[in-house]
Design brief:
15% helix; two-stranded antiparallel sheet
Length: 186
């Protein structure tokens, strides 16, 4: 996909998400916040934060217990690792699955923007096979990084980012802190 097509697709995805949050009955935003919602703040699209790494799949898909925002635990399988470079420095993120049969990879991460420009608990990427594949590589596009719904409402329970996915670099892409007074959330 060329850069202009990618930018158009990303803009359309962001518009759809803003529309969902602001208007849809299943939006995590409470009614009063939904009525005042004018859209999420996003970083400008950055093609340098879109990667196509191979997934180094683990032979042993070890189970991982992940704490949640509701003081519960969720179980995941450590599925594989992505290795990529940001600003000339090698980085790696683990990818997880909740079930070995599922085609979705969950890639949560924290970075140096958390608590300042982005949600303090981290952000997520969801990758689905085959939509997010480029041959043998996956499309790891931080411009699609999103804030979990538990930020908007205590009705949502969100898994915390495992320590192994805490990056020591700023990922200035994707959603920024939602500037909302929703009265709930974390």
């Amino acid at each position: 996909m060329d850069t202009e097509d990618w930018r158009r697709e990303l803009a359309a995805e962001r518009e759809q998400k803003d529309e969902f949050l602001g208007e849809h009955q299943q939006s995590p935003l409470p009614g009063d916040a939904r009525a005042a919602f004018e859209g999420l703040p996003y970083y400008d699209p950055d093609p340098d934060l879109r990667f196509e790494p191979s997934l180094e799949e683990h032979e042993d898909k070890a189970p991982v217990t992940v704490a949640t925002t509701a003081d519960n635990d969720q179980e995941y399988l450590r599925w594989g690792e992505f290795v990529f470079e940001v600003d000339g420095e090698q980085q790696s993120l683990e990818a997880y699955r909740s079930d070995p049969e599922e085609e979705r990879l969950w890639v949560p991460f924290r970075d140096e923007t958390n608590g300042e420009e982005t949600y303090g608990g981290g952000r997520y990427l969801d990758l689905v096979d085959p939509e997010d594949r480029a041959g043998d590589e996956w499309v790891l596009d931080f411009n699609r990084a999103y804030t979990p719904f538990c930020v908007y409402s205590d009705l949502y329970e969100c898994p915390m980012v495992p320590g192994e996915n805490w990056l020591e670099v700023a990922i200035e892409a994707g959603e920024k802190v939602p500037y909302l007074d929703v009265g709930e959330g974390h």
